[in-house]
Amino acid sequence: MNDYKFGNYIYELRKRSGLSQAELADKVGVTNKAVSKWEVGKAKPSVETIRKLAVLFQLSVDELLRKREEENQVEITKIVITGGPCAGKSTAMSRIQNTFTQMGYTVLFIPETATELITGGVSPWTCRTNGDYQKCQLRLQLDKERVFEQAAMTMDAKKVLIVCDRGALDNKAYMDDLEFMQALEYLGTNEIELRDNYDAVFHLVTAANGAEKFYTTANNSARTETIEEAAALDDKLINAWTGHPHLRVIDNSSDFEGKMRRLIAEVSSFLGEPEPFEIERKFLIEYPDIIWLESLPNCQRIEIIQTYLKSDKDEEVRVRQRGFDGHYIYFQTTKKKVSDIKRIEIERRLSQSEYLRLLMNADTSRRQIRKDRYCLTYENQYFEIDVYPFWDDKAIAEIELSDENAEIIFPKQIKVIKEVTDDESYKNASLAKTGGLTSVSGVE
Q1: Cross-strand partners of 79
Q2: Exposed e or buried b per residue across 353-370, where buried means at least 16 C-beta atoms within 10 angstroms of its C-beta
Q3: What is the 3-state secondary structure (H, E, C) of 91-144?
Q4: Which domain CATH number covers 167?
Q5: CATH code of the domain covering residue 31
Q6: Judging by DSSP bridges, how do beta strands 342-350 and 277-286 pair with one another?
Q7: Containing domain of residue 56, as a range?
Q8: Is the dihedral of CA 277, 283, 284, 286 positive or negative?
Q9: Is residue 349 part of a domain?
Q10: Same domain for 168 and 19
Q11: Which residues are bridge partners to 250 per DSSP?
Q12: How many CB atoms lie within 10 A of CB 339?
């Protein structure tokens, strides 16, 4: 989870001084992106930069360092509930509030920004261009999230769940590539920072895809799409979020009540309620057609560097750098095995400085794993296809499930050699020891 406390502290100091992010960056010799990362809790300034900030804001270095290292006592999780038109989000919000309040969470809801603006008279057809409108919506979305994060820090609560009725990346589905690039430039951010600023994303499939008789525009004055337009928009929204570390798609394969139960189960599983189980199946596949993967709108390539740390015998601890094109986020993951396909997994977001510090505890008996991960949504499933530099004839495909017996449907272009869920030699921890050389005959 992001360190919102220190991020909001820097944000308040900057606002109080009347500085923009660019002006603060210029005064302390860093980039706009660095300031942005501080303020959303994704990174913390170095000691040298802390000294410059102390002079600028007329504070002691000790005070700033104490704030930087201060532990956040409130556990804040920010998730997105998204989906195509008439997907059930309003009901989902009510279910989430009832369920997780009973579990001890303080649940906060950020209302859908598009509906607020459109019902207030601000829309793509009242603004000069669609691009102008999208910039307004994105700015308001991010400002609302900051207000809720700041408010959460002041609450007498141990666990706060912030639920966004749509997130910033939803806007991408309503823009062409040029408009989206201009919006990112306007915000001073990039797609990875915008997308991965949320801890998890849950997509509810529109009723226009699989439950057509229930599709209606009557319950939302901002909804204008036909059934065909709604189904196409649903696909665009899934594509926009593909690449997020924790994306789940909830389809219409059951009745509506079943759909809501599956959503609550997915959110509960992510939060670790009552226990953070991960059900994962892994398959050895033939080396995929990279050109085909990269041509798909529902597929995103992610660069990953994974390092294993020294740990107790019954635990596996790793840190991971994840991103693309020079923009990265960092995680620490601790895993304990429960059964062959079920593990307890605890994951937390790291700042860049925390990540670099943990690297000093690397397990030098294991190699660092580098791979390209292709995140692919297909038939409402979320595949992660890992392509390693030491293999040119095979790769690994993984899928996380909430039900051990769920059916898996592979694209016809993916050729499965065999399932390797229980094969220790194909786990990343083993590959880090062998460098990709396995002892399984017929696939070397």
Answers
A1: 163, 200
A2: ebbeebeeeebeebbebe
A3: HHHHHHHHHHHHCCCEEEEECCHHHHHHHCCCCCCCCCCHHHHHHHHHHHHHHH
A4: 3.40.50.300
A5: 1.10.260.40
A6: antiparallel
A7: 4-69
A8: negative
A9: yes
A10: no
A11: 204
A12: 10
Co-location of 282 and 150 in the same domain: no
Q: Are residues 90 and 209 in the same domain?
A: yes
Q: Give the C-alpha separation, 381 to 407, whole Å.
A: 10
Tokens of 50: 């802390």
* Bridge partners, 81 (sequence order): 165, 202
Give residue 59's identity as a one-letter amino acid code: L
pLDDT tens sequence across 94-140 = 889 888 887 889 999 999 999 899 989 999 999 999 999 999 999 99
Q: Would you say residue 353 lies in a domain?
A: yes
Same domain, 336 and 377: yes
pLDDT digits 0-9 by tens, 399-422? 987 677 788 999 999 999 999 998
Q: Which residue in 249, 376, 232 sits closest to 300, CA to CA?
A: 376
Structure tokens at 5: 């406390």
222 secondary structure, DSSP code: T
* Per-residue pLDDT, 439: 44
What value does the mean pLDDT take over residues 83-88? Answer: 90
| 3-class DSSP assignment, residue 31 | coil
Query: 292: which 2 tokens?
Result: 């085909």
- Looking at the structure, do residues 309 and 211 belong to the same domain, yes or no? no
Residue identified by tokens 């939803």 is 170
Domain boundary, last residue among 47, 69, 91: 69
Helix residue spans in 220-367 (DSSP H): 227-241, 256-271, 290-295, 352-359
Half-sphere exposure of 226 (CA within 13 A, CB side): 2
* 110 shares its domain with 238: yes
Q: How confident is the model at residue 444 (pLDDT cuts 50, 70, 90)?
A: very low
Question: Is 306 found in the same domain as 233?
Answer: no
> Are 160 and 64 found together in one domain?
no
Residue 305 parent element (H or E): strand 299-308
